Amino acid sequence: MATDADEAPLLADEPLRPGSCSRELELREFRDRYVFRSLDGGGAFAVARSDGSLRPLSAEEAAAGSDCKVSKIYGVAGMIRLLAGSYVLVITSRKDAGSYGASTVYHANSMKFLCCNEAIKHLTSEEKRDEAYFMSLLRIAETTCGLYYSYDRDLTLKLAEGIKAGCGEGT
C-alpha cells in the first residue's frame, strides 16, 4: 500500500528560488535504475529503467550501492515517453555562454538520452520500426547545438516579464 511519502510530488509546486537548482549532479547507472544526486547539497531521485517511474530518495538511499557506472552531469533537461517507454535527457557537458542580468547562462555542449523501457521486448515489428524512427529523431535532438539555459533564471521570459515576476536585475 502506498504511503503519503510515496505519493508526495517530486518537485514542489512553488517556483524555484534563485540558486536552488543543482548545478552539478552525480548520475549513478545501476542495472535497474538511474540515481541522480545533487553534488551541491540538494536532494536525490531515482528513475526506474523498467518504466521510467520517478521516486525521491533519501541521502542514504542515494549513496547506497557500488555496482554502477558513475558520471557527472549538469542537469536533467526533460523526459519523453514513446511507444516502448520513457527516455530521460541529461546534459553531459556545458560551457559558460555569458550572463543575463546577474544570472549565468550556459550552453549545453552535449546531451544523452537514458533509456527506461523494458517494454520494447514486447512490441510488434511495426511498433519496433516506429520506435527506431522516433529514436533516430531523438539522436538528432541529442546532437543538435543550441540549448542555452540558466539555473536561476527563466530564459523564456522577456526582460519586462521577468522584472514583473521579481526576477529582474539585482534580485
From TrEMBL:
<dbReference type="GO" id="GO:0046856">
    <property type="term" value="P:phosphatidylinositol dephosphorylation"/>
</dbReference>
<feature type="domain" description="SAC">
    <location>
        <begin position="74"/>
        <end position="161"/>
    </location>
</feature>
<dbReference type="InterPro" id="IPR002013">
    <property type="entry name" value="SAC_dom"/>
</dbReference>
<dbReference type="GO" id="GO:0043812">
    <property type="term" value="F:phosphatidylinositol-4-phosphate phosphatase activity"/>
</dbReference>
<protein>
    <recommendedName>
        <fullName>SAC domain-containing protein</fullName>
    </recommendedName>
</protein>
<dbReference type="Pfam" id="PF02383">
    <property type="entry name" value="Syja_N"/>
</dbReference>
<dbReference type="GO" id="GO:0005783">
    <property type="term" value="C:endoplasmic reticulum"/>
</dbReference>
